[in-house]
Each structure stands twice: as C-alpha cells, then as structure tokens.
Design brief:
Blueprint: H1 61-98, H2 103-130, H3 143-146, H4 148-162, H5 166-176, H6 178-186, H7 189-209, H8 212-229, H9 233-246, H10 250-266, H11 268-277, H12 285-308, H13 313-331, H14 333-348, H15 350-372, H16 377-395, H17 397-417, H18 419-431, H19 435-475
Helix pairs in contact: 1-2, 1-19, 2-19, 4-18, 5-17, 6-16, 6-17, 7-15, 7-16, 8-15, 9-13, 10-12, 11-12, 13-14
Length: about 475
C-alpha cells in the first residue's frame, strides 16, 4: 500500500498534500519496530497513481487512491486496536489471577491469549501478501511483489481458459440473443436515424481522407487490367445479335438516313464539285457538270427512298451485314483478333485513361453530396433498408438465428485465433508493472477488507481459546 500504515501504537505516517504517498521503507513491529501488525512505513516518494502506475491514471484517480489509503489505515488501526485490547485483557486477567480473583480470570486470560495469537497469525498472513513481515527474509512472503509475473501469467491463462474459450463465448452470445435485440433496436426510427447519420459521417470521412490520385490510379489500373484480360468481341457479338433480332438498330438506321438526307440537301454543290473534281481532264466541263448533277440526284433519291421506305433493299442489306458481323464477332478468329487489337489501342490512349481516372472524382463528389444531404436518395434508401432489416430481425426467428450464428462464428474465430495474443497482453502488461508499486496499489484496493481477517482472527481465536480452556478444565475435573 502506498503511504504510511498505522502502527499498533497509533502512529500514522505522513501523506503528501497531493494525495500521493511515499514509499514504505520499513514496517513497524508490534512494539513499534519494523514490521508490526499495524506496521507503517514513512517517507515521501513518487505518487503511486502516477503515469507509470500499474493500473494507469484516470481523472480523479489520485483522490480516489488517497481515500482508499485512508480507509486502509483506519481499518489497520481498528484491527490493531483489537490486538491491543486482547493484550490488555490478558495482562489484566493475569494480574487478577495472581491476586486470587477466582476462576473467571483463567477463562479470561485463556480467551485473550488465544485472541492475541490469532491476531498475530492473521497479521502475519495479511502482511506476507504485500511485504516481508518485520523485514525478515522469510520464505513465501512478499508474495505479490515476488510472484507478480507468475500471477500475471496465471491470470492470463485463467482468462484464456474461462473467458476466451469457444464454448464460453458461443454460449454467452447465444444467451444474449443479439439478433433479436438488434432487430428491436433498429426497428425504432430514432435509432435508425442515428445509425444512418453515423454511417454517412463515416463514409464522408473515409472519402475525404482518401487521396484522389491514389484512388484514381487504383481504379484506372483495375479497370484497365479487367478490360485487358476480358475478351470483348464475343460479348459485343451477342449484344449486337440481340439488338438486330429485336430491331433495335432500325432507329439508328433511321437517324442516319435522315441526317444523310439533310446533309445532301444542304451540301449539294459540294457533292457535285467533288464528282467533277474526280473526272478525267480530257472530258468537257459541261459533261463533268452533267455527270455531277446526275450523281447527286441519284444519291439524293437513294437516300430519300431509304429514309421513307422501311422495306428498302438497302435496309435489308444493313440488317444482313449486322447479323453476319455479330456472328463473326463470336466465331471468326480474325475478326475477334482485330477487335482485341482495337481495344488495346483504345485503352492505351491517354484520353481514355484520363476519362477512367476522372470517373472517380465524379463518383466521390456524388457520394459525398448524397451522404451530406439528409433527403438524398442514398440516405433515404439506407434508412428504409435498416428499418426493414430491424423489423425482420425483430419478428423473424430464422433470421435471428442466422445473425446469432454469424456473430458467434465471428467471435469464436477471433477468440480462438487471437487467444494467445490477448492473454499475452495481460501477462506482459503485469510483467511491466513495478513490483512495489503494484503491491501498494493492490493493497490500497483490497487492504481494507483484508483487515477484517485480522479482526476475525482475534475474535475467533479468543472464542476458540475460551472453548479449549473450558473443555480442558471440564476434562480435568
């Protein structure tokens, strides 16, 4: 224990104003010498509840430790008082017996003598836990300071065997019924709002901490690697085949025909000039002009008919081409190889890589904005999902069993996998404590109750001595 202990003579050691008590260099014996039953040790030293204290420090721990030490000193005074009282009674009874006081003096002396023996024996037992009685190197004393590391190892083994075993953890979790409790808790809208809010805050925090450059690099590499490893030609062929079979391509053909017709109408002169420019130099210019006009009119007529006639032969040719191309994408090795080369060329272009990398920035901004907005679809859907899950968990016994089983398996895996690390944390922590400071700390916590052992030893010893003396007198006639 930290601080001055109360000796039999009533002397109390000095306590610092801060509540810390100095180390105890020597015990006081029954007569005031070292190691007495109420033995105290004086001196000022580092506070037992300092930062390096074995049990750590918390706000107000110094005051609490000081109060514990005062309680221990009071109980030591009381226990020592019982010893002094037994001693005084013994002296009085002996003196009275020597002066012919009668048989009662013998009974009283026997009871007091046995009480003194019990008090001294229990003082020795209690003191031997924390220090060497009378400062003597008696074997198997100062148990806590000398056996601290062994006690820490034993404590770790005890915790591992009785608290961190798979059967104990599984039985305890099953008795708690976490699934049903979690369901009932989540079924309350207020609790769901709290979970949603905290999850949104956590999501915002994670997205804020992540560096865009790192994530963009990872996302870009993942997409590129996935696209490079996956052959796309068969998939494109199947998709094109379904589109053609459903007629989904016809709208695109319609759009192309309309746009081609409008372009020809606006750029007729350009078309005719292009035709004339490609004519041989020896042909007359009016012939070239007539040919250009004829080509333009036929081209415009062809596009107009194709635009206005869904059954136009050119449309059928387009359908056949797309169907054949879809088949080639799926089965023709040369076509598939050309598509793969085109894919690699596209992925290697800087513009494509920049587009892939910029996608993360857009996604992050969108998710952060949704997480911050209480009325966003993300938050509303998350809240609704949690409410639904809570309702199901509260009423569905099968789902409760699944959740309980998952949690039991997870907890069992953790305790069985990391049992050695957890128990070693206990033993290594105890091993790192200062032996004397640990002893004082423990005595401050349990020393008050241990003084009752001394009191009980005095009382029980006196009663036992009285009983033995009475039986001996009765047997001796």
């Amino acid at each position: 224990m930290t601080g001055a202990d109360q000796g039999p003579t009533g002397r109390v050691g000095r306590v610092e104003r801060t509540g810390s008590v100095g180390p105890e260099p020597a015990e006081r014996g029954p007569g005031g010498g070292p190691g007495g039953p109420g033995g105290g040790r004086r001196g000022a030293g580092p506070a037992a509840s300092g930062p390096s204290g074995p049990l750590g420090t918390r706000p107000g721990s110094a005051e609490l430790d000081a109060a514990r030490r005062r309680g221990v000193r009071r109980m030591k005074l009381i226990a020592t008082g019982f010893l002094l009282a037994a001693t005084a009674v013994y002296v009085i009874a002996k003196v009275a017996g020597a002066h012919g006081a009668g048989p009662w003096a013998g009974y009283l002396a026997a009871a007091a003598e046995a009480g003194m023996v019990g008090a001294l024996a229990d003082w020795f037992a209690v003191t031997a836990l924390f220090r060497r009685p009378l400062g003597l190197p008696i074997p198997h004393t100062a148990i806590i300071p000398t056996k601290k590391d062994a006690l820490g190892a034993s404590l770790g083994e005890f915790v591992g065997e009785n608290f961190l075993s798979a059967d104990v953890v599984r039985a305890r979790l099953r008795a708690v019924g976490i699934g049903a409790r979690l369901g009932g808790w989540l079924a309350e809208p207020g609790n769901t709002d709290k979970v949603t809010e905290q999850a949104a805050a956590a999501l915002r925090g994670v997205l804020t901490v992540l560096r865009d450059s790192d994530v963009q690099a990872v996302v870009g590499e993942a997409i590129t690697r996935r696209a490079d490893a996956q052959e796309i030609a068969p998939g494109l062929g199947k998709m094109l085949e379904r589109i053609v079979a459903d007629g989904g391509h016809r709208r695109m053909v319609d759009l192309v025909c309309v746009r081609a017709h409008d372009w020809l109408v606006l750029h007729g002169d350009s078309v005719m000039e292009a035709v004339q420019g490609g004519a041989p130099g020896w042909t007359p210019r009016f012939v070239d002009r007539k040919v250009g006009e004829r080509v333009y009119k036929e081209l415009l007529r062809f596009v107009t008919e194709m635009r206005d006639s869904p059954g136009h032969p050119a449309r059928g040719a387009v359908d056949r081409f797309l169907r054949d191309f879809a088949v080639e994408l799926q089965s023709d090795p040369d076509t598939r190889a050309r598509v793969e080369r085109l894919k690699k060329d596209l992925l290697a272009r800087g513009e494509v890589q920049d587009l892939i990398a910029s996608a993360w920035g857009s996604v992050r901004a969108m998710v952060v904005a949704a997480a911050e907005d209480e009325r966003s679809e993300l938050r509303l859907r998350a809240r609704a999902s949690l409410l639904s899950l809570g309702g199901r968990l509260a009423t569905d016994a099968r789902l409760q069993g699944k959740v309980d089983t998952w949690l039991e398996d997870a907890a069992t895996y953790l305790v069985t996998t990391y049992q050695a690390e957890i128990t070693s944390l206990i033993s290594e922590t105890v091993a790192g404590w200062d032996a004397d400071q640990t002893s004082r700390k423990i005595e401050a916590h349990v020393g008050r109750d241990l003084q009752f052992i001394r009191i009980n030893g005095t009382v029980v010893g006196a009663l036992a001595g009285l009983l033995i003396y009475t039986v001996a007198r009765a047997a001796g006639g």
